[in-house]
Amino acid sequence: MEEYPEYQYLIVDRKAVINAAGKNFISILPLLIKRIRLTDTFQETLNQCLQVASRSSYYEVVEYLIGEGADLNLAVEEVRFIPHRRKLTSLQAALIDFQRYKATQAGFSAMHRLTDRGHGLSKSQIEEILDDSQPSGTEADASSQQRTLDTILAKGADPNRAVEYQRHPLNIAAAYGTIETVQALISAGAQAEAVTGEYSTVLEAAASRETGVLLIIKALLEASIPASSTNASKIAALNEALSYFTWFQSQHEGRFRVSKSLIDVLRVGPGAVVRTLLSHRPQEKADDSRYGHLAQMACVAGDQDCIEFLLQRGMNVDTAGYYYGTALQAACRVGNIAIAQCLLDSGAKVNILDGAHATALRAAALGGHEELSRILIAHGADVNLSYKDRDKSVLHLALASKNHAVFKTLLFANADMNTQRQNQSHILIAACKHRDVTLVELLLSKDVNINILGT
Asked: pTM of the full predicted structure?
């Protein structure tokens, strides 16, 4: 260490050298390497330095170590994650932490906010749910990661070497990397034909992602990688994408944690992947109940193309369950007349009792959607159908919407005015409490009992 005479007698062990590589100390790493060059563990230390630097995306350190003779394709034991240490090549190490999309939640996710818990969704709240202007968070500097990967591939790393950690590089990249990562590996000849790791194929690994997924799925399909071209592979990937739409009663939102908006889910996320894979499986029917959850999301987002596609592929228009009960109820909740009409034209039943608002008409009433209320009544909607032991009356919902036209439509469709229950006051008393003279006069015109007792 001629440049640092005060350290010329410093004893340098392999741990210090590995730490320097893992902390991007490129300026002093050559000096440390020089001090251990004649030791018996020099090559092993050099290879572990390469693995650590690759994992941390320190491309300058990676390039230096390769120049010093580090073996790109040798699998060495991890320095981190004791006691569960694996053996990884530098390429696997570079990819294993390529988890760009951080699966964390700040408050409620967009998927959670679409379920209004029985409260009215304002226009601004709906716009917030649909907003896709905020990008998903990232853990690491993607440009450094990509440059590290490019360096390792350019220097001769084997893109198909899996060794003891049985996940091919392309399989890892599909699950965690960017589209650029996947394309770089495909260009380098990556195949990932073997069944490896957590997912049976690279296509299934890609479909396991919540974000950054559509372009990767398309790239894999276009590349015609053998393991991604079989029908079994496409079916497994489709099931993986559909798993995001599995219903959890306690969460009311499926598995979504990272997506910032419904637009994300439907245009570039799992919803888009489902449609893409279905397009590559022309005989596949959309008869899984999870398509019902996807359809409800599409209704809230106003994605009529998605609804029409699912119906064309055999989705049951009355698939029940999930938060809104049916796709029709979801469309009526947000006031989407075009999608509601599409569903009705496809045979949707108007008197299914299910979901947060019990019926489509009640959802429309709560939203203050007069035209939809009229359409549903014209299709035979029962204005008084509800869960009697828990629900507010449909007139109370219309009162909450502050839309006089909806209230009048329901009232003249013979909505029950005798609404006094344990959990709600009589509708006349409720209208008086709201100081709504117009509604009081409407009720009086229908000969409401003015002598009703209550609070």
From this structure: 0.81
